[in-house]
Amino acid sequence: MIKTLMKQIKEYKKDSFLTMFYAVVEVILEITIPLLMAALIDRGIEAQNMNAVTRYGIMMFVIAIGTLLLGFLAGKYAARASTGFAANLRDAMFTHIQTFAFSNIDKYSTAGLVTRLTTDVTNVQIAYQMLIRMCIRAPMSMLSALAMALMINVELSMIFVFAIIFLIIVLGFIMYKAMRYFNEVFPKYDDLNESVQENVVGIRVVKSFVREKHENVKFQKAAQNIYKMFVKAEGILAFNNPAMMLAVYGCILLLSWLGAQSVVAGNLTTGELTSLFSYTMNILMSLMMLSMVFVMITMSLASARRIAEVINEQSDLVSPEKALTSVKDGSIDFNMVSFSYKHGDGEPVLRDIDLHIHTGETIGIIGGTGSAKSSLVNLISRLYDVESGSVCVGGQDVRFYDLEVLRDEVAVVLQNNVLFSGTILQNLKWGNENATLEECQEACRLACADEFIQRFEDGYNTYIEQGGTNVSGGQKQRLCIARALLKKPKILILDDSTSAVDTATDASIQQSFEERIPDTTKLIISQRISSVQSADRIIVLNDGIVDGFDKHENLLKTNEIYQTIYETQMKGKEEA
Amino acid sequence: MKKQNVLARLLKDIFKQYKIHLMIVFLCIIGNAFATVQGTLFMQVLIDDYIVPLIGNPSPDFSGLFQALIRVACFFGIGVICAFSFNRIMVTVTQGYLRNLRMQLFEHMESLPIRYFDRTSHGDIMSVYTNDTDTLRQLISQSIPQLLSSAITIITVFVSMLTLSLPLTGVSLVMLCVMMVTSKKLGSLSGRYFVKQQNDLGKVNGYIEEMISGQKVVKVFNHEEKAIEGFRKMNNELKESAFQANKFANILMPVTVQTGNISYIICAIVGAVMSLSGYAGLTIGTLVSFLTLNKNFNQPVGQISQQINSVAMAQAGAKRIFDLLDQESEVDQGIVTLCRVKYVDNQMVETNERTGHWAWRHPRSSGEVELVPMIGDIRLENVDFGYFDDRMVLHDVSVFANPGEKIAFVGATGAGKTTITNLINRFYDIQNGTITYDGIDIKLIKKDDLRRSLGVVLQDTHLFTGTVLDNIRYGRLDATDEECIEAAKLANADTFIKHLPNGYQTMLTGDGGNLSQGQRQLLAIARAAVANPPALILDEATSSIDSRTEKLVQNGMDKLMDGRTTLVIAHRLSTIKNSDCIMVLEQGHIIERGNHESLMKEKGKYYQLYTGAIEMD
User: What is the pTM of this model?
Assistant: First the structure.
C-alpha cells in the first residue's frame, strides 16, 4: 500500500529530500540558539561584559536569520512536494479510473470515487507534508536532547529512555485501536457523498413529492454515522496528549527525587540538574510535534489504503497485448452468446444469442421493456464481456481488438443520453475533436438538430448545463446522435435514441442515414414499429432470447410477438 | 463577505451550540495551564529550598522534598485529567459541530430553488459537505484549544514582564507587533490562496463527478484521453493554488520563531546597556529573569502561528459553507394550506380522519377561515415566463383545466411544454399573468401543499438508494406494502419486479443502476400512483416503455387518470388523442387548442402533425 503511494511521488522526490535536508540543517542551527542564549547570559550579562553581549548577540542574530532562511526553504519545498504528490495521486487515480470497466465503477460508486480523489488525497497530502517536515526534525531534536542528557548523567538519563519506551508502547496501542475505526469512517463518507449527489441530481423529484423532510432524516443518519465513527476514533486519540504529559511529568518527578539525592550525595551539580530539566522540556516539545504527525498519519493511513485500492484495481476489461488495430468492415456476429451482469452467478440476461449481421445492413431491434435490448448492443462495443460464446466485429472477436480502435469504429448513442457542461460545439467535438464547424453542422443536419440550434441565440456556442438540463429531451437526443455521427463509424448503434423525437423527425433522420451513410452498419433499437419497419432485418428480443430475426413482412406473418406489437401500434393509427 | 466575519461567525456558531462543553473545556485548559505553571515554579524552588540546604548534610532528610513532590504530583495529576477531559470533550464538540453543520447544510440545500441546482455543478455542491467541512476539523479540535492555552500563557507572562521592567516590555511589545504584522500579511496571503484552493478543489470535485457519472459516454467515444487532459488542467490549477497556500502558511512558523529570537537578542542588548549604565534601576538579576520571561512569551506566540495554517484553511472552507447557507431559500409566502375534510350535513368540516376528501384552508383577512374543496381546477391566464428576465420562453399562455379533465400539450421539443408544468408546481415563478388552483392564486398556496396536490412523473426519472419498495413508497410514506404492490401492478411494474433477485426488497443503488430506462419509468409511475393526488402531471411518462407494455400500462394509467385533472406531455399522439383538450405549442405560444376531432377538422398544425405531413420541429 505505502509502496503504491510512494511511486507517485515521482518528480517531487527532489523537493521531498530538499525539505528534509533543510529541516535537518535548520534543526542543527536551532539547537545552537539555546547554547548561545546561555553563553550570552553567563559570559555577557552576568560577567557584565558588554563586548560579549554584542558578540553573542550578533552571532545569535546571524544564526536566527540563517534558520529563518532555511525554514523558508524547507517550508516552500515541503509545500511543493506535498501538493505535487497529491496532484500526482489524483492524476494516477483519475487516469486509472478511465481504464475501468463499468463493473469496476459500480464496485466503488461515483460518489465513493469522488471522495477518494479529493478528501482522501487531502488527508494524505497533509500527512505527507508533516512527515517530511517533522519526521527527521522531531526525532533529531529529541535524540540530541537525549544525547546531551546522557553526557551529563547516564543513570538519570535512563529515566528518559524508559519514558520514551513507555510512550512508544502506549502510542502504538492507541494507533492500533484508532486505525480500526478510521478504516470504517471513510466508507461512511462515501455514503454521505452519495446521499448528497442523489439529492442534487434528483432535486425535482424530491420537491415534487415534498420529500425534503424525509430526505433530511435520511441524510441525518448518514451524518450521524460519520459522527459516531469519528468520535470513537478520535476519542481514542484523545489519550495521546495526556499519555505524553504523564510521561513528562513522571520524568520531572523522578528527576527531582533522584536528582536531589545525587546532588546532595555530590554526584551531580545543581547546574547539571537544571540542564536535565530543560532537556525534559525539549523532549516534550519534540514529542508534541511527533504526536501531531502521528495523529495525522493514523488518519491518513485509512485514506492511503483507499487510494491504493483504486490505483491497484485491475480493470475488468483491458485491451489484449497484441491487439488488432483495424476493423475490416461493419459485420457483426453473435456466436451462441450468453451474458449476465454478475460474472458466474446471477441470472443470465441474454441466452444463446446467435446472430449474423452483414456490413452496411440496417437492423432494427424491438422487444419488451427489460428484454435486454441494451445489453445486447453493449456487447458490440465491448462495454461488457460475454459470459460464454463470442461477439465478432469485422470477423474478429471483439476481445482481440484494441479497445480504442473498436470503440472508434462502433459509435453508440446510449439510452441514457449524457451531455457535458460546455458549449454545443464542444459537446459535438467529443465525436471528433478535429471536426470543423461545417462538419459539425453537417452532422447536425443529418440528425435534424441544426434547425433548433440555429434558433438558439448563441447557436453552436450555446452553453449546455451539466446533464443538459437546459435543452429538452428531444433536443438532447438529436445532439447525441449528431455527436455519434461525427465519428464516421463503421457501425452505428442507436439505443432507443429517438424516443423523445416525433415520428416525422425520426423518419427523416432514418432517411438521411440511408442516403448519407449507406455503408455503415446501423442497429436501431426502438419501441416504435415505424422506426424499424424499413430496416433490412429486425431482431425481436424477448426476455433475453431472440424470438425472431427477419424482414418486416415476414415477421408480420410468422412472429407472434411482432404481430402483437404491430397491432397495438397500428390500431392507434387506424382509430385516428 | 469578509474573511474575518466568516471566522467570527463560525466561532459564534460553535459557541452557541456547545456553550457548556466549551466552558468546561475552558476551565480544563486553565487547570492544565495551572499545572504547567506549578511545574515550572517547583523547579525554581527545588534547588533553592530542598537541595542546597541539604548539601553537606551527612544524613539528609528528604521527607520535606517527598511531601513537596507529592503535592506537585497532585497538581500534575489534575493537569493530566484536565488535558484528557478537554481533548475528549473537544472531540465531541468538533465532530458534533461538523455533524450539525452538515445537517444544517443539507436542510438548507433542500429548501433552495431549482434555479440554484440548474447553475451549480453537482460535484461542487458535494465538495462543501466533505472537503470544506473537513477544513474546520483541525481548527476546532486543535487550533481553538491551542489558541486558548497560549493566550492564557501570554497573559500571565505579560503581567510578570510588566512588573519587572517597563521599557523592556515595551521592546518586547514592539517586536510582538512586528511579528503580528508579518503574520497577518502572510496569513492573508495564504488565506487568499486557500480560498482559491477550496474553489479549485470544488471544481475538480465537480469535474470528476460529471465525468464518472457519464463514464459510459466517455467510453463509447474513446474520450478517456480528453477527459484526462481536462482533468490535468484543473488538477494543475489546484496543485498551484494549494502550493501557494501551503507555502505561505509554512513559512509563517520560521518567521515568528526567529522574530522571537531576535526580540530576545534586542532585549538582551538593550537590557545589558541599561543595567551597565544603571539606567532605570535595572539589576542584572532582573534582566536575567526578564529574558527567561521573554523566551516564555515568544514561545506561545510561535505556537499560535503554527495554527495559522489551519485557521486560514478553515476560513476558506467556512466561506464556501456560508456561501451555500446564505443562498436564498425558495420564498414561500403561501398561507393557504391543505386539510382533510368530512361532510356533515353537506357542510365541510375539518377533520383528522382519512376521509379521502381534501380542501384548501384559506384564511381571509377578516379572520375567517374559508374551506375550498380541492377538486383540481387548474387555470393559467395570460402567463409570460422566461428563465432570464430578458428572454421569455412562454408568451401569453392560457390553459383551463376543469376538474377531471385531461389536457395534453403537443409541440416541438423546446416549445415550452415541460416549462409549463414546472410553473404549476412553482419550480419557477412567472413574470406575468396568474395561475390558479381551485380558484386560488398558487402564490397564496403553501408550496409543500401545492406540490402534494400534484402527482408528477418527470421526463428524467430519478430513483433513490433503497429497496424497490422504498422507491415506490416515496410517493406516500405511510403507504402499506400492499398499497405499494397494488400501485406497481397498476403501473405494470409488478412483473419485472418479481423477476429481480430479491423482488420488492431488491436494493437499488446509483439511480437505479442496472434497471432499463423503461423499467425505471414504470417505477416512477407506480410512485406517482401511490401518492394518489387529485391532479397529475405526466411529462413523457412512457417515452421509454415499449408499446406492448405501454398498452398494458395504459389501462392502469386510465384508471389513474380517472377523475383526476391530468396534464400530459407526450410525443406519441396516440396516447393523448382522447384528451379533453389538446394545446399545440410553438415557440412558447399556444397556436391551437381543442379536442382531437375539432383540431383535425381545423386542418391546422395538429392535423399536419397527426397525419405526418410536417415534422414536429
Answer: 0.82
